[in-house]
Amino acid sequence: MTDQAPREVEHEITVQAAPEDVYRLLAEVENWPRLFPPSVHVEYLERNGDSERIRIFATANGEVKSWSSRRELDAENLRITFRQEVFTPPVAEMSGTWILEPVPAGRTRVRLLHTFRAVDDDPEGLAWIDKAVDTNSRAELPSLKENVELAAQPDERTLSFEDSIRIKGSAKDVYDFINEARLWAERLPHVAEVRLTEDTPGLQILRMDTLTKDGSSHTTESVRVCFPHHRIAYKQTTLPALMDLHTGYWQLDEDADGVTTATSQHTVVIKTENITGILGPDAGLTEAREFIRAALGTNSTATLGHAKDYAEARR
Questions:
Q1: What pTM was estimated for this model as a whole?
Q2: What are the residues whose beta carbons fall under 8 Å from the beta carbon of 3, sequence distance 6 or more?
Q3: For residue 38, with 0-12 CB atoms within 10 Å meaning exposed, 13-18 middle and 19 or more buried, which class applies?
Q4: Edge to edge, what strands does the sheet with 260-270 contain?
Q5: pLDDT tens digit string along 85-96?
Q6: Residue 303: beta bridge partners?
Q7: How many CB atoms neighbour CB 2 within 10 A?
Q8: What is the DSSP letter of 143?
Q9: With 0-12 CB in 10 A as exposed, 13-18 as middle and 19+ as buried, what is 51?
Q10: Which of 10, 71, 134, 174 lies 20 to 30 A from 214 at CA?
């Protein structure tokens, strides 16, 4: 076994947003599903001042993977360092740093540094890691630029909302109804066909054909991360034509009396170039926002209504 120095590589991009805004979006991990296409859900495992452990759920080659990472936040110097805790060969070590530097015209230079080693310092393994880091970084940074610029500025393309109902039933029974999406074609009138894959318990890929009011259907695919019996977070990976992004979650909160508040939350970024083709030549962002709010709200409220019937029948 050799004892070579770790490999260090750097990628960078310039973003039209203030360094403090970019730092905040990277520091607050709940933003990551909006910033990075592979990210589905990120949660905090530990937080102690500027030190934290996070768990990341993301897609990779059509599969859902999760891993944990340690981070050190340095808001004063606009730096975030990270280090993966568990490695899969050929990776023996992986860490890195986000460095944010102000540049003229209110912009930010985003530098992403990686430091890594291969198992036994194997040259082929090192080359494999080098290529993977380079490929991912080259894909990640332009996406980060686009989405940071969108998130940092008030934009009518972005729409977030939620609907809630109260259910005289247990959170577990409501959760079971939403979790068992493979049965939705039998249980929900607006779902025509459904296919659920769950190779790892709690990590699901849900593909379904949803009916619209005019009787037509559209196909979507979502990655879902399930936390019994209180939350299911998801991100659509195959989107309707009117959306550039769709994330959301089902949240279930049961009180001391056994009554559950069930909430469906959506965050959408509208695909503006498709508005007129779908909604007509005179339609704009206002009409698109109203259309999406009504369509998603109607379907998720209907799902909650059927979950309510299911849970209350089991009380």
A1: 0.88
A2: 121
A3: buried
A4: 158-167, 260-270, 243-254, 231-238, 217-227, 203-211, 191-200
A5: 988 889 999 999
A6: none
A7: 7
A8: H
A9: exposed
A10: 174
Q: What is the mean pLDDT of residues 132-150?
A: 89
* Number of residues written out for the chain: 315
Residue 95 tokens, joined: 């860490």
Spatial separation of the C-alpha atoms in residues 121 and 210, rounded to whole Å: 50
Task: Report how far residue 146's alpha carbon sits from residue 29's, in angstroms, rounded to the nearest whole number.
Answer: 17
Q: What is the pLDDT of residue 63?
A: 80
User: Does residue 1 surpass a pLDDT of 60?
Assistant: no
Tell me how far apart the alpha carbons of residues 21 and 151 are, in angstroms, rounded to a whole number. 9
Per-residue pLDDT at 3: 65
pLDDT digits (tens, 9 = 90+) for 73-117: 999 999 999 999 988 889 999 999 999 999 999 999 999 999 999
Reduced to 3 states, what is the DSSP secondary structure of residue 81?
strand
Report yes or no: 142 and 13 within 8 Å, Cβ to Cβ: yes
- Which residue has better confidence, 58 or 153? 58
Tokens of 149: 């610029």
Q: What Å distances lie between residue 52 and 80, 97, 298, 313, CA to CA?
A: 11, 15, 38, 42
Instruction: Let me know: does 55 contact 42? Beta carbons within 8 Å.
Output: yes
Kindly compute the dihedral angle of the four CA atoms of residues 164, 44, 146, 7, in this order, to the nearest 10 degrees: -160
